[in-house]
Design a protein that fits this description.
Elements: H1 2-11, H2 13-26, E1 47-50, H3 56-62, E2 74-77, E3 82-83, E4 93-94, H4 98-120, H5 123-128, H6 147-161, E5 165-166, E6 171-172, E7 175-176, H7 177-186, E8 211-212, E9 218-219, E10 230-231, H8 263-278
Parallel strand pairs: 7-10
Antiparallel strand pairs: 1-2, 3-4, 5-6, 8-9
Protein name: FZ domain-containing protein
InterPro entries: Frizzled_dom_sf, Serpin_CS
Transmembrane segments: 21-43, 259-278
């Protein structure tokens, strides 16, 4: 049963496309410690800390898509910076501008929405009584008429592409575990499909059980989830404010929404926050 859950997660068109587009760019950051050694964006030392993100008018001009998500000092692309050659770009490349990066996040995120909603509204699958994998059942509705899920994913994409930074030390900060888990909660994913755990478990919460073929070949299905590594949220001694040690680390960020949200989503978020304080 666990293996089946992992297979669905790995082969989901929505998650697979996200991984395909982001994992190559994120690979080099996966092995960094929980505190980066510079202002990294997608694993490359190509950013600089900016406090301009605290100004709404600046965000409206420079990152209109992420303007309601990035409410902290952020690591943004250094402009006019020529990046060295890499495996993905053997001839080297020029760094993105902040606005180009924002438009990239918008294009990627909205494309995922369109493709997933098309699957969820597919009448052929519905009439055949099968899901997107051809198995008997129905397609789970994640994005279609689910503004909380879309908003959680939109926020998450903005956060991992414009991470919080320590201005004094010019250091980017890893993603808060709560930001990742908020996405899975908001989109109704079963607990066994969450991928916000430790890097050594490929972001699972426990070691993966290998699949052994009839010939004795061992294989695994997990892959790193975009935005990892994740850091556990920490709070002040009185528990009334969140410490700024990860991205986004904004009080109430998990439930903040610039689109209408449902009461159920807020309730789930509050329960999760309370559990985080008690554990």
């Amino acid at each position: 049963c666990v293996g089946a859950q992992q297979k669905i997660n790995f082969q989901s068109p929505f998650l697979l496309l996200a991984m395909h587009l982001y994992l190559q760019a994120l690979t080099s950051i996966l092995f960094l410690s929980h505190v980066s050694i510079a202002c990294y964006i997608a694993g490359t030392d190509s950013g600089e800390c900016s406090t301009s993100t605290a100004v709404l008018a600046w965000r409206q001009d420079n990152m209109p898509y992420c303007q309601f998500s990035v409410l902290y000092p952020a690591c943004v692309p250094k402009e006019d910076l020529e990046l060295p050659a890499s495996r993905e770009f053997p001839m080297g490349r020029w760094n993105s501008t902040i606005l180009m990066k924002d438009k990239y996040v918008e294009r990627m995120t909205e494309t995922l929405f369109i493709e997933r909603i098309a699957i969820e509204r597919n009448r052929t699958l519905r009439k055949a009584g099968v899901n997107e994998y051809g198995d008997k059942g129905r397609v789970r509705r994640r994005f279609y008429k689910k503004p909380d899920c879309r908003n959680a994913f939109r926020n998450y994409m903005c956060w991992i592409n414009f991470p919080r930074c320590d201005v004094a030390r010019d250091l980017s900060m890893p993603t808060c575990r709560s930001a990742c888990e908020n996405f899975f909660i908001s989109c109704g994913y079963e607990r066994g499909l969450w991928r916000c755990g430790k890097s050594k478990y490929f972001n699972g919460y426990e070691p993966e059980k290998p699949i052994i073929s009839a010939l004795g070949n061992v294989s695994y299905l997990r892959e790193y989830f975009p935005g990892q590594p994740f850091r556990e949220n920490k709070y002040s001694p009185k528990g009334n404010s969140e410490l700024q040690i990860c991205t986004p680390a904004i009080d109430g960020a998990a439930s903040r929404s610039h689109f209408p949200g449902s009461v159920l989503f807020v309730a789930l978020t509050c329960v999760f926050c309370l559990l985080g304080l008690l554990l």
